[in-house]
């Protein structure tokens, strides 16, 4: 056990599905897993282990931001011997080619964060996911006829909607960035450092290119499609 996770060794599966919101972890466990068992509730960061179509899986929240997922992902990989983590979350569009509710798969995460410098004295600002895991996700999406958009994403330390000079901030990002979220860089960096696997799927829930808003019902349906895709990949 750790200061952040009360699960015993063996109670965490080798594969973890990781939404940011712990209540979404609870929702996924109760809706999709067979015989889900609550294995962590420290700080309200729910983790459940159960099975999906016979495959053991843990679903656990990560919290918001690089520092939070950095703690949980490190402990899962290093202490609980997890092999792979698929993050599922929401993102904002940086490309006019993305519509609300589109699904994005990150093939590289950029970040201005000093996470790598503080963690391992490396001045690194780009991190890649597992190519093997990404290829599995792409193949399964094609099989299920689910459209996904693959590209570079940005992991910010702030919620860019609150940045006073948002346009200035967004314009300094690499031109290849198609969407922004707040966690993938740390997940990818740690997976590479520890010789593990990681991937990140996101649903676009806001965009500066449209005034349209996503309803609660639309958001739930779209997130369910992304969750099902991740679960089928794991299965």
Concise structural overview:
A 5-stranded mixed β-barrel has the order 5-9-8-6-10, surrounded by 4 helices. It has one domain (about 15-235): Rossmann fold (3-Layer(aba) Sandwich).
Overall description:
With 235 residues, this protein is of the alpha/beta class. The chain contains seven helices and ten strands. It has helices at 22-32, 66-78, 115-120, 131-143, 166-171, 184-193, 216-234; strands at residues 15-19, 34-40, 47-52, 55-60, 84-93, 103-110, 126-127, 148-155, 177-181, 197-207. The protein has a five-stranded mixed β-barrel with strand order 5-9-8-6-10, surrounded by four helices. Strand 2 (34-40) and strand 3 form a beta hairpin. Helix 2 packs parallel to helix 6. The model has no long low-confidence stretch (mean pLDDT 93).
Question: Layout of helices and strands, plus pairs?
Answer:
Elements: E1 15-19, H1 22-32, E2 34-40, E3 47-52, E4 55-60, H2 66-78, E5 84-93, E6 103-110, H3 115-120, E7 126-127, H4 131-143, E8 148-155, H5 166-171, E9 177-181, H6 184-193, E10 197-207, H7 216-234
Parallel strand pairs: 1-4, 1-5, 5-10, 6-8, 8-9
Antiparallel strand pairs: 2-3, 3-4, 5-9, 6-7, 6-10
Helix pairs in contact: 2-6, 4-7
Q: What low-confidence regions span 5 or more consecutive residues with pLDDT below 50?
A: none
How large a portion of the residues is in β-strands, by DSSP E? 25-35%
Determine the CATH topology: Rossmann fold
Q: State the end-to-end distance.
A: 27 Å
CATH architecture: 3-Layer(aba) Sandwich
Radius of gyration: 17 Å
**How large is the count of helical segments?**
7
One letter per element, helices H and strands E, the order comes to EHEEEHEEHEHEHEHEH
